[in-house]
Structures are given as C-alpha cells and as structure tokens.
Design goal:
Order of helices and strands: HEHEEEEEHH
Largest sheet: 4 strands, parallel
Radius of gyration: 23 Å
Distance between the termini: 39 Å
Structural class: alpha/beta
Oligomer: single chain
Length: 176
C-alpha cells in the first residue's frame, strides 16, 4: 500500500515538473486579438432598437465604457490586444490578427436593397453587406452584431432567435 502511494506521488511530481518546464517558447495567450467596439448595452435606435439615451453623447459614453471593459478583460488573458471602433475597421485589418471580435458593426460595404414588383409588394430583400464574400478570418460576434453582419450570408446566429422555439431553443433536461 505504501509503495502504491509512493509511486503515485512520484508520478504526480514528475508530471507536474514536466508540465512546468515544458514548452517555454510559446505561451497559451500569444493570440493576437482585434476587438471592434461600437455597441453599448443598448442600440439606441439603431437597427430598429428602442432609443434609450437622451443624447448621442450619452450613447457614445456607454460605448466607450463597454469598450474599456472589454479591453481590460481581453488584456487579462491575452498579451496582444488591439481595440478600435468598428467604424474604423476594414476587413484587411483582420489578416494581422489571429481572431477578430465584432462587438460593433463595421462600415456597410453595400446598403440593403428592397426590390418591389409592379404592385409595390416586396419581391426581394437583399441584406446589407458588411464583409466581402471571401472574408475568412477567424471571428467572434457578440450579441446582435452576429445577426446583423451574417444576415447577408444566411447565418442564423441571432442573439435570441425565437423562430427555432421549444426544444431547439431551450434546454431539454430530459434528453440523454
């Protein structure tokens, strides 16, 4: 019994020593992150949301506060973080980073288009384009930004999509 405990302790010591002296060239947090801010906790009338701030200055203060909070969080875990406003973003910038985090909507490349028939009824709705079709950089979208950017490409990545409803939307605790 004592031999088993001794062997276990030696194995534990050996694996912890190897884990601590292993690959020192690259740290796990050496990921280059580009964070695009531009949202606050509320859209303030943008994209059909309610207007919740009395002035544009109040809205922008909320945006800055959120960007600062995300910047602090990301700098906690990653060494290389660049924070910019989404309005200053171009898709080519993502090539210099390992991941782009969209928390703001980048400038529109093509405005949305509504096509009507001769009776004035909508026959086609073409969503706005925010990224080129060949955009392939690893990205994370936060909240409603994912749906806004992805709508053009058929992404169903809404922040609270209820169209799926029931078992596809909520957790089924009975499922194995």
């Amino acid at each position: 019994m004592k031999a088993n405990v001794l062997i276990y302790c030696l194995c534990l010591l050996l694996t912890s020593t190897i884990g601590c002296t292993g690959n020192k060239e690259k740290k796990a947090n050496e990921i280059r992150v580009l964070y695009l801010g531009g949202n606050s906790d509320w859209q303030n009338g943008n994209f059909g949301g309610p207007k919740t701030f009395a002035t544009e200055e109040e809205f922008q203060e909320s945006v800055e506060k959120r960007m600062d909070a995300f910047s602090q969080l990301l700098h906690t875990y990653f060494d290389s973080v660049t924070v910019i406003k989404a309005v200053d973003y171009t898709p080519e910038m993502s090539a210099n980073y390992d991941v782009t985090i969209f928390d703001g909507v980048p400038p529109v490349m093509e405005k949305r288009e509504m096509q009507y028939d001769e009776n004035g009824k909508v026959k086609a709705y073409i969503p706005a384009r925010y990224l080129p079709d060949n955009f392939s950089s690893p990205s994370i979208t936060i909240g409603s930004v994912g749906e806004t950017i992805g709508r053009r490409y058929g992404s169903k990545n809404d922040w609270y999509c209820l169209c799926l409803d029931a078992c596809a939307h909520h957790m089924n605790m009975e499922h194995p």
